[in-house]
UniProtKB/TrEMBL annotation:
<keyword id="KW-0472">Membrane</keyword>
<feature type="transmembrane region" description="Helical">
    <location>
        <begin position="97"/>
        <end position="114"/>
    </location>
</feature>
<feature type="transmembrane region" description="Helical">
    <location>
        <begin position="69"/>
        <end position="90"/>
    </location>
</feature>
<keyword id="KW-1003">Cell membrane</keyword>
<feature type="transmembrane region" description="Helical">
    <location>
        <begin position="120"/>
        <end position="143"/>
    </location>
</feature>
<dbReference type="InterPro" id="IPR001851">
    <property type="entry name" value="ABC_transp_permease"/>
</dbReference>
<keyword id="KW-0812">Transmembrane</keyword>
<protein>
    <submittedName>
        <fullName>ABC transporter permease</fullName>
    </submittedName>
</protein>
<feature type="transmembrane region" description="Helical">
    <location>
        <begin position="270"/>
        <end position="288"/>
    </location>
</feature>
<feature type="transmembrane region" description="Helical">
    <location>
        <begin position="37"/>
        <end position="57"/>
    </location>
</feature>
<feature type="transmembrane region" description="Helical">
    <location>
        <begin position="319"/>
        <end position="338"/>
    </location>
</feature>
<feature type="transmembrane region" description="Helical">
    <location>
        <begin position="295"/>
        <end position="313"/>
    </location>
</feature>
<feature type="transmembrane region" description="Helical">
    <location>
        <begin position="188"/>
        <end position="210"/>
    </location>
</feature>
<feature type="transmembrane region" description="Helical">
    <location>
        <begin position="240"/>
        <end position="258"/>
    </location>
</feature>
<dbReference type="Pfam" id="PF02653">
    <property type="entry name" value="BPD_transp_2"/>
</dbReference>
<keyword id="KW-1133">Transmembrane helix</keyword>
Length: 340
């Protein structure tokens, strides 16, 4: 038998390289990660939510009461649904400024349908279809019309708001239905039905976003339209689809809104537009496209809801609440520069 000998120095170098490779594969040590700004940027929404809970609970012991937690989760449902739709659009490098107005229009369509037909299921279908119609309009303007997403959705923002006022004659439509009332007041434990619906939407969106070919194409389109098109991705269809998804979810949010308010209000609530974008930014979704998540915007929506709720419990004037939201969003945007 022939023995093959290797120099001890070579063996030592090989072992060092192997150890170095394994260390790199495991990633940085936990303490090193805590010193990395990129780590905090990735988890900004979750860390911010935890800090808010600690601060508000210390200032007011009722913040984490079962009743207030349920109220916050129910209040966050509409924003979560809108933020999920906004996430798909922003991932492609676009933005949808019309979500709040489309939701208002869909709510008016819901209210008028129920007023004339007294059919809840039909009213829900009409609301979702109305949202889808506006979403398709946005998608066509951006993908086929080659209009900048900012201008296109700014136009439909105004158009949807005006159409809602014209259809309703500027008057709210009261909707009284026991099933709809249970949607806003009933639930399982601390989880209201509206929040459960929003959670289901988020889970389904996560599956579509990360486990389907469509989700991969959405991310590819946001990363580089030219590169995605060169690999066979039909980028125009992808852009049309994401705006359609945002429209459908705006229609669903309209149903949740009517169930909570008990009426279809024709006046658009611009706070939902600003907060839907804010939740996406807080969630770490890149505003230039190509990178994002569903979990992040959901946590971002919960953070914004907790912030508003906590300030209200502390008796802070509503005039300061938009200021606080703006500060939080700017800080999140600054942190996003350090994301890996």
């Amino acid at each position: 038998m022939t023995n093959i000998h290797t120099p001890s120095g070579t063996s030592a170098q090989s072992g060092a390289k192997t150890a170095s490779f394994r260390s790199a594969a495991r990633g940085p040590a936990p303490l090193a990660r805590l010193k990395d700004i990129g780590f905090w940027a990735e988890w900004a929404a979750l860390v911010g939510l935890v800090l808010l809970v600690i601060v508000f609970q210390s200032a007011n012991s009722t913040f984490l009461s079962s009743g207030n937690i349920q109220a916050m989760l129910t209040a966050s449902a509409i924003l979560i649904v809108l933020a999920v739709g906004q996430t798909f659009v922003i991932t492609t490098g676009g933005i949808d400024l019309s979500v709040a107005s489309v939701m208002t229009f869909a709510a008016v369509a819901f209210g008028l349908t129920y007023e004339h037909q007294r059919n809840l299921a039909l009213s829900c279908v009409v609301a979702v279809v109305a949202g889808l119609a506006w979403g398709i309009v946005n998608g066509l303007l951006v993908s086929l019309g080659k209009i900048t997403d900012f201008i296109a959705t700014l136009g439909t923002l105004s158009a949807a708001s005006g159409a809602a006022l014209i259809l309703s004659n500027g008057k709210p439509t009261t909707v009284i239905n026991s099933t709809l009332l249970k949607l806003s007041s009933g639930g399982i434990g601390l989880l209201g039905w509206s929040f459960i619906i929003a959670a289901i939407v988020a889970v389904l969106a996560h599956v579509v976003y990360f486990r389907t070919r469509f989700g991969t194409h959405v991310l590819a389109t946001g990363g580089s339209v030219e590169a995605a098109a060169a690999t066979g991705v039909r980028t125009q269809r992808i852009k049309l689809a994401v705006y359609a998804i945002a429209g459908v979810l705006a229609g669903l949010a309209a149903i949740l809104l009517v169930s909570r308010v008990g009426a279809a209000e024709p006046a658009a609530n611009t706070a939902y537009l600003l907060n839907s974008v804010a939740a996406v930014v807080l969630g770490g979704v890149s505003l230039v496209g190509g990178r994002g998540s569903i979990f992040g915007p959901v946590v971002g929506a919960l953070l914004l809801t907790a912030l508003t709720n906590g300030l209200t419990l502390l008796g802070v004037s509503q005039f300061y609440q938009p200021l606080s939201v703006g500060v939080v969003v700017v800080l999140a945007a600054l942190l996003s520069r350090f994301q890996k």
